[in-house]
Every structure is written in C-alpha cells, then in structure tokens.
Amino acid sequence: MKSAASVPEAEQSTRPVELARHDEAALLELLETLVQRHGYVPREFSDEVSRLVAVKLERLRRIQAKLDSTIRRDVQQHVARWRNEEGNLIMILHAIQNQHGYVPREVAMELSRELGVKLARIYEVITFYHYFKLQPPGAHNVTVCNGTACYLKGSTDLLNALRTELGVAEGQTTADRQIHLDTVRCIGCCGMAPAVVIDGKTLGHVKVADVSGHLVALKQSNQEARP
Fold first, then answer.
1. Which residues pair with 141 in a beta bridge?
2. CATH 3.40.30.10 domain residues, the chain
3. pTM higher than the cut 0.85
4. CATH code for the part of the protein at 140-225
5. Up-side HSE of residue 39: CA atoms within 13 Å toward CB?
6. What was the pLDDT predicted at 5?
7. What value, to the nearest 5°, has the Cα angle with vertex 129 and ends 211 and 168?
8. Choosing a second label site near 195 at 20 to 30 A (CA), which of 42, 174, 209, 218?
C-alpha cells in the first residue's frame, strides 16, 4: 500500500475528501493532470467527481428555478399593467428596461411566451429604438457624438481610441461592468466638436491624446466612491 509520501502530489490533492473544495476550473485542471499521469482518470476519482457534478447541477437547477419564477412573476406584472393599452409591447419593454437597465434575453423570451408574440418581433422593436439596450449598463457611460460636425473633426478617431482602451465596441459594456461605450447621432453641441459625454457631462474639443486621461479620471472617481 502506498504511503502518503509516495503518492504523487496531484493525486494527494485530488483525494475524494478534498475534491469538494475545488471549483470547476480546478477540477478540470486536476483531471487533466491525472489523465496525463495515468492515461485515464482513476475510478476512485471519476466516481467522486461524477457525484460532485450531480450535486452542483442540482443546486444550479434550484437557483435557475428561483430565477425563472422571479422573471415570470415580474413579466406577468408588467403585462397585466399594459395588456389593454395600445402599443403595449413598447410600454412593457420600457418597464422591463427601467427595472433591469436593459432587456435581458431570458426576460424577452418570457415576454414572448406571455404575450404569444414571436421573439423575433420583440427583437425587431428592441433594435429599432435606440433607447433599448441588450447589454447590462455600466456604472459609467461614455458617449461619443457622431454628428456631422463631430465626424468631420475626428470623432471616428476618438471612438477607435476608446474601443482600444476599453476593449469593447460601441453599445457594449466592459467586462467589469464599469464603463458602457456608446455613440449618438448628435448632441447639439456642434461648436464643441468633437464632443464626448461622460456621465452626462459634455466635454468639447476632445483629442485622441485626451482619451486615456479621461478614462483614468473616471476610474479614479469610481474607486474614491467605494466605501
């Protein structure tokens, strides 16, 4: 019988009693290690991992069931409020966006079922009106004016710089949900072209060289706002 000292470290760390402490990524990495070492996953580990996966899936199903019931209840309330109103789909979508900050896909699917309207029709409305968003909003909004005056003064270069700095395209939010990047047709400040609006504050005559500084200031203000 092997002593603990003679058992490879990877196998010591993956004994069944330890497996439950690993997250999914760690489990996958450990299983890969075992396959590389043995050419297969030893039965004692595969059985335990299968049991853990079953437990995690059951927990996820319970969580999803709670989310589904909450979504269904909220959608039914919105539908009940606007069901008899003309153009109720738009009003319901407004209510949903006011609640979530955007229109989540799972909510749109539930609305489709509740109204008996094709999901494609709901997305036609969402994508037609600029107001509706399909991505979660960020804590901060950076909007580039792309009107004629701003375009001629280099708004495209500003937008490209922001895309590079943030790693997202217009209409998207950074992975940390801190900054949402967008464009608008015109903000009516042509004399300040090119203009950028950050959290409702209009900045004029913005240069590409200014982009990094504005983003740094925005991130610093966010850190200072944290308790």
1. 180
2. 140-225
3. no
4. 3.40.30.10
5. 0
6. 43
7. 30
8. 174
